[in-house]
Amino acid sequence: xxxxxxxxxxxxxxxxxxxxxxxxxxxxAAAMARLTAKVTASEARHTGEIRLAVxxxxxxxxxxxxxxxxxxxxxxxxxxRVWDTExxxxxxxxxxxxxxxxxxxxxxxxARLVDSTEWQAVVSSMQQAFRAGRFEAGxxxxxxxxxxxxxxxxxxxxxxxxxxxxxxxxxxx
Length: 173
Description:
Layout: H1 3-17, H2 20-26, H3 29-43, E1 49-55, H4 60-65, H5 69-79, E2 90-96, E3 101-106, H6 108-111, H7 116-131, H8 135-153, E4 171-172
Parallel strand pairs: 1-2, 1-4
Antiparallel strand pairs: 2-3
């Protein structure tokens, strides 16, 4: 079996071996509650919307096509309607456990103001925590970094009531 084909099968097995129960082991109910509270608190400081998505493995169709975590993050950005915010300033933070991959997808309003190297720096800083299995700590790090970006570009106006456009609870699969 050629090396490339062998690595494809190993990737397929790794992704199919993990399921949503692995997500709940990595981030238990208490961790999910803390992350939800952190998103809620963050969104009080800016007008952006942050959505967390944590997935054990890629769907089979992605694996057969050789698609990446980035491809999945972009798809979820649409499916979870992160693009559908009033100021086009939603941000998706995506974690794929099977590959220990992290992706950040920003809507067009914020993408015009933030260079991709800035997002890559956030992702790079999270990778060490994820490699060590500290998923909650890595996501908290990402939330803090994204919050900093959003507060600097889209600060909340004191006293202004705003509508929470997206759920604060992390999406999991």
